Amino acid sequence: MLNQKMKLKLGIPKGSLQDATVQLFARAGFNIYVSSRSYFPSIDDPEIECMLIRAQEMARYVSDGVLDAGLTGQDWIAEHEAGDGKTGVLTSIADLIYAKQSFGKVKWVLAAPEDSPFRTAKDLEGKTIATELVRATRAYFAKQQVNVKVEFSWGATEVKPPTLADAIVEVTETGSSLRANRLRILDVVMESNTQLIANHTVLADPQKRTKLENIALLLKAAIEAQGRVGMMLNVRRADLAAVLALLPALQRPTISALSDDQWVAVNTIIEERTVRDLIPKLKAARAEGIVEYPLNKIVL
Predict the structure, then answer these.
(1) Which among 75, 123, 172, 254 is placed 20 to 30 Å from 60, CA to CA?
(2) Greater confidence, 43 or 78?
(3) pLDDT above 70 covers what percent of the chain?
């Protein structure tokens, strides 16, 4: 247990990732209560003190020690370290692949109008690029040995070409907003997903380190369970091979003997999207007592 005077100061990303993060913590067993009038959400764990911080600023505050740990994207960590941020101060505790629309990585892409002559980054020599990810974008073009003017965009970046910028570097999950604005992706500048980061000095405290590792374990378990369900069923031994052939499993199905030696119970984990097709097939393979149940966490 942490000493009451040694609460873990944890940054929760305010903005587009906020709801997805709060929901992920809930599945992990931590209920965070956010008030529109406070930047200090309450949490049902007396060892944690939360603060809402924009993901763009999280790396700086964790690096400076204002926060012990926080959740932010690899993109904003790179942006921080490409500026005045010191490298080696931040440690990633967990790689958490979730985003505001889907449980997957997001991409920062270089995009230009569909009817423009630009096809690659090198075609943008001397041109203006609008983006919120200014430092990382400059680093990208420097690596490409292309001279461009990179301007900070305060928002609505997709509508700036061709009048206010020649091209943009913008984050996307599905690409739908870019297509809607008649933009063509030229290159992927960076892939990013959320990281649970900590100031490396915090990890020297055994209590805080253990607390962070436990939080990471539960968050990763909640992500593993996303989109999966458990399934139990009974089947005669004579029909077991046919049933097992239908069951994709996380590892291998668990098979348990029943009081009737002719029957066994099968327990497995499957993708939820496959259930509607799988259950009729299992019934046709003579499985009985089929039960589907939700999963909150899977610890690998």
Answers:
(1) 172
(2) 43
(3) 94
